[in-house]
Amino acid sequence: MDKQTKRFCYLLLLLSSLLMLSLGGSVSAEAGEKSLKHIKLIMDWYPSADVYSPYLVAIDKGYYKEEGLEVELVPGAGSAISTKLVANKKCDFGIADATMTLVTRTKGAPLVVLTVVNQSSPAGVFSLKSSNIVKPKDLIGKRIATQFNSKKHNQFLGFLKKNNIDAAQTIFIPVTGGAVLQAMLSGQADATLGLFNQVEVILKKMGKDFNVILFGDYGLHIYDRSIITHEDMIKKNPLIVKGFVRASLKGLEYVLNHPEEAVDNYIKHYPEGADREKGVMMLKATRRFIENSVTKKYGLGYQTKQGWEDTQNFAFEGGLIDKKINMNEIYTNEFRQQSTAME
Q1: What pTM did the predictor assign?
Q2: In the CATH scheme, what architecture does the domain 123-218 have?
Q3: Residue 79, Ramachandran bin (φ over 0: left; ψ between -120 and 50: alpha; else beta)
């Protein structure tokens, strides 16, 4: 199955899921598990081992069941969709980019971030070693392949500003989709924007020698992938929220410590076009963005006010939001505490 056909199939799956949501449908629990509370988790993108594995592990190893939950994963197609469905109460929880969640919150959507999975952005600038681009100033005068409407491009602009580089000092080569990487490999561009856990894996498998400048290593400290919910879910069902967060983080921890097993488990659910080696490499590459000094002290997913202020400053300075909000509105660490199974 080629990429275009695979993408079409995922879109059909997403549309079917959304239709079911709009009709209020749900998957019934098995006869012996009718006491479980059925909840929906909308993902932020199509299935991939690095994103889906923690939640699949939590399902298959019974972590959610231990908390009295039956979790249904709904395939997504971007954080704009996952934030909207959670805000409209079509899904109980969602996976979404932290900046997009903040943007949506400033527009009045009552969303709250329960835990930040990716403590920093995996985005950066990739180049072949022959281009000799090893630090931010080396980008001046260089041709950069980018998608103007992507979050990577917005982050790149913030990264340039942090390093006192005028965007006009670089040459943007506008491309779309997979052509971003190809533009660099073909010599059309000197460098390309990409996500470390994706581009690094591709270039390594191709045997290419490359350099990468991660935005987070050069002043752009922002939160990335997060778990969100609606304010009403917190007010009305705190035990559900607590149980879901606890089980999800337990799944995340297991995946980090058992990447090979996690990928094998993912492939059981999504065997079409699966690449085990690539999946394991992606999971291992993602770990550096999930763990940092904060998580080592307080645990996976922990959020700080400073982290959110940095994220909000990036969004405000980049024109993604036109006003700032009280940081206490957007996040909480309360539900990372130990939970008990629901009655």
Answers
A1: 0.87
A2: 3-Layer(aba) Sandwich (3.40)
A3: alpha
